[in-house]
């Protein structure tokens, strides 16, 4: 499967004055939301409406509490990485409270983790093993807003819903994509898979998640023009 790489983002190079301004504001402002990012996870995602399109993703996680995480998703871990989307991750406890129609938009993480696809680069496996045990029971909703895999140099169109790799059918991940990632970070997903055998499978994975597996249907977002709801004038 060939992957298209987006070219340089349009725009003039950063000036010295802009660099100085950015450094100054960085020193003066707190940037608290960004500083709450505590983990870097590298994994893979598939477009819900076209699972032949598969991408490597880099998630920078902020933990709100034990049951909810929010992630800024980039296309790499370099200084010039593009922000391509967001993912929300909830525990099984929260997922079971969602309406059935909402649950269809989410994917499970059990296979992704057990198969060694979900990794914390440069972090010893033993250190984040307790976290992996919890995440196998979690569900994610990932929207990709910048389709760099098709060569877009800007975030064009509407966001696309993404799904997690699965062990069968069209959800199987391209092995070359995994090998390329593993080589870059110096590990083997197959070895991780063996190490993670002892991580317990969830007792229950809600079939409303990974909706495409049971129905063969994905989701594709479109823009619809509507009459604007106008604000009433101030008194």
Summarize the structure in words.
26% of the residues lie in helices and 23% in strands. With 235 residues, it is α+β, with helices and mostly antiparallel strands. It has one domain. A hairpin with a 2-residue loop joins strand 1 (37-47) and strand 2 (50-65). The model has no long low-confidence stretch (mean pLDDT 89).
The total domain count is 1
| Termini separation | 60 Å
Approximately what portion of the residues adopt beta-strand conformation?
15-25%
Overall pLDDT: 89
Give the biggest beta sheet: 6 strands, antiparallel, barrel
Spatial arrangement of strands, main beta sheet: 1-2-3-4-6-7
Low-confidence stretches: none
The SS-based structural class is alpha+beta
Query: Helix proportion of residues, in percent?
Result: 25-40%
Radius of gyration: 19 Å
Q: How many β-strands, per DSSP?
A: 7
Question: Total number of helical segments?
Answer: 9
Q: Helix and strand string, N-terminal first?
A: HHEEEEHHEHHEEHHH
Pfam family, one: DUF1264
Protein name: Oil body-associated protein 2B
Family: Belongs to the OBAP family.
InterPro entries: OBAP-like
